[in-house]
């Protein structure tokens, strides 16, 4: 399969946020952050829209030309205090944008941020989404392929947090390995920090 990919810009912001919303609406972490399904439907897109804004401001968004998939990437320099400061402010932005009274909006970002490696430059896969009707077709793998190939050429590792056991298995097939202990959301699901060494 050859997936046509283009880089998103500000005009794609709302479409990418909608895609993330529908793709992650039933994700275990989203269900933990917003336990009530009706409330989740109302605010989940605003919550994930902050990720879109951060990727447009600080990184890049690759998307399928047909709108079926999108990957949000940040290039994180080694030991960059400015990058750490940006990551530190994102959880508060998410809570303020989506659901100010819900501390879980902020807590999930604080817990994952605490384990994010900072000693080595890497590509951070902030999120990847495939439209629900298209999942299982290999679109996510094709969408990641150009960045991972570039990582391999340049000798740059990649990092992500898997939010479900199913996605963890997919990432393992692509060379990521669980690094350290899973992030344990209080009375909630696990998230797996994963690191991918460049392949020679």
Cα-based radius of gyration, to the nearest Å: 16 Å
Uncertain segments of ≥5 residues (pLDDT<50)?
none
Number of separate helices = 7
DSSP helix fraction: 40-55%
- Helix/strand class: alpha+beta
Largest sheet: 8 strands, mixed
What is the β-strand count? 8
**Termini separation:** 24 Å
Shape: globular
**What's the average pLDDT?**
92
Describe it.
With 200 residues, the chain is of the alpha+beta class. It contains 7 helices and 8 strands. The model has no long low-confidence stretch (mean pLDDT 92). The chain is globular. It has helices at residues 13-24, 28-33, 37-58, 81-98, 104-115, 139-154, 165-173, and strands at 5-7, 60-64, 69-76, 122-130, 158-162, 176-178, 183-184, 190-196. Helix 3 (37-58) runs antiparallel to helix 4. Strands 1, 2, 3, 4, 5, 6, 7 and 8 form an 8-stranded mixed beta sheet that branches.
Layout: helices, strands, pairs:
Layout: E1 5-7, H1 13-24, H2 28-33, H3 37-58, E2 60-64, E3 69-76, H4 81-98, H5 104-115, E4 122-130, H6 139-154, E5 158-162, H7 165-173, E6 176-178, E7 183-184, E8 190-196
Parallel strand pairs: 4-5
Antiparallel strand pairs: 1-2, 2-3, 3-4, 5-8, 6-8, 7-8
Short key terms for the protein model shown above:
single chain, 200 residues, alpha+beta, 8-stranded mixed β-sheet, 8 strands, 48% helix
